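Input structure tokens:
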């Protein structure tokens, strides 16, 4: 179980990465796409951090977004180091998270079943 300090650190990293992606990136693969940083899981020594990213788009756009984020990883890390005072600035590993999309799909299926049962 993560300590309260690591939970706060992960949340601060998540917030700053999200702000940097939404306001600071000029990569056309990342612009004009709904991107959400779901979770950040940094190691205790802050050497690496897994960044779980949700993208609401088709598979081709998701791949483009992930390529754009990996290409901009150095810039995002530099901005993170500038904004958050950490002993080590973690290396960012972006991972695609489809949990939000899965939840939206489940809600849609439940609504369809409920509408059919009412008829």
């Amino acid at each position: 179980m993560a300590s309260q300090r690591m939970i706060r650190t992960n949340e601060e990293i998540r917030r700053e990465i999200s702000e940097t992606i939404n306001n600071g990136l000029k990569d056309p693969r990342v612009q004009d796409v709904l991107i959400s940083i779901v979770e950040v899981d940094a190691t205790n020594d802050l050497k690496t951090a897994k960044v779980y990213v949700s993208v609401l788009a088709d598979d081709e756009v998701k791949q483009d977004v992930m390529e754009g984020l990996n290409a901009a990883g150095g810039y995002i890390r530099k901005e993170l180091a500038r904004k958050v005072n950490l002993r080590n600035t973690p290396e960012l590993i972006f991972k695609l998270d489809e949990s939000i999309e899965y939840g939206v799909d489940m809600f849609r299926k439940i609504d369809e079943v409920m509408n059919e049962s009412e008829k």
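The first strand starts at residue 35 and ends at 42. The two ends are 48 Å apart (CA to CA).
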